[in-house]
Specification:
Shape: globular
Number of helices: 14
Helix content: over 70%
Number of domains: 2
Structural class: mainly alpha
Number of strands: 0
Distance between the termini: 48 Å
Order of helices and strands: HHHHHHHHHHHHHH
Strand content: under 5%
Largest sheet: none
Length: 252
């Protein structure tokens, strides 16, 4: 059995140069606003970790291994109230459930000959910011440029987490509480703003429905407001997009 790459996989110096260019494009894209926003959010997490008694190394490990601010904040809050390690792990894992559909929307857009064991590491680099950028940029990129672009972008964003967390931890006594929370919420705000350039109707409708349903469901059931607004808003957006596409297909 041959060990050579599939015929569809481009090889040679030209393809390597192309991959390097795509990687550098991803790095440059990340070093603009995304890395700065994520760095600021991790400063907020570092300060929060110090205030609830998480060790310096523990906060660094959380940023490097969890790499998801919602899960990290849940971990910090549960540790602050004395929850057991098992409960903390389960709660943080549940907040990461959203990454399954996010991964399923991104990975199929990467050519099969670029999917290998490294795909597991790429999945770890998938965060709200990198997913939003992938959804926006992948249609503009050649298929063989998508993996190196994503790796360049994701590595920079992941790489700024550790220094951001360390800086926030060391500055904890000098960062006001409201500013800490504001820094943490910069990342989801940037994620939302990215979708102003995303064309699919379903994505925009999901954001609109979520914005409307979020406050309403919070008044009814604060503990489940995020889950309900996401489930109902996303489902409505999906149904409306399917109907719109079906009507357009019938009209052509």
């Amino acid at each position: 059995m041959s060990d050579s790459l599939p015929p569809s996989a481009p090889t040679g110096p030209a393809s390597e140069l192309q991959a390097q260019r795509a990687f550098r494009q991803g790095v440059r894209a990340a070093f603009a606003a995304p890395a700065a926003v994520l760095f600021a959010g991790m400063i907020g997490f570092g300060a929060l970790s110090q205030s609830v008694g998480i060790s310096f190394l523990g906060s660094i490990a959380a940023s490097a291994l969890i790499y998801a601010l919602p899960g990290q904040i849940v971990m910090a809050e549960m540790m602050a109230v004395g929850a057991t390690g098992l409960l903390v792990s389960l709660a943080a894992a549940l907040t990461a459930a959203r990454f399954l559909p996010m991964t399923l929307t991104v990975m199929p857009q990467i050519p099969s000959h670029h999917r290998s064991g490294a795909a597991f590491f790429m999945a770890h680099l998938l965060a709200m910011t990198s997913w939003a950028i992938a959804v926006r940029e992948f249609p503009r990129l050649a298929p063989d440029d998508r993996r190196p672009y994503f790796l360049g972008f994701g590595l920079v964003c992941w790489g700024v987490c550790i220094p951001g967390t360390a800086l926030g931890y060391l500055l904890a006594g000098h960062v006001p509480g409201p500013l800490t929370l504001a820094l943490v919420f910069l990342n989801p705000l940037f994620f939302l703003l990215n979708f102003t350039e995303v064309r699919p109707l379903g994505f925009r409708l999901a954001i609109l429905f979520g914005a409307v349903l979020g406050p309403l469901t919070y008044l009814l059931t604060p503990g489940y407001s995020l889950l309900l607004s996401g489930l109902v808003g996303g489902s409505l957006a999906y149904v409306l997009q399917r109907r719109t596409l079906a009507q357009r297909a019938e009209g052509t």
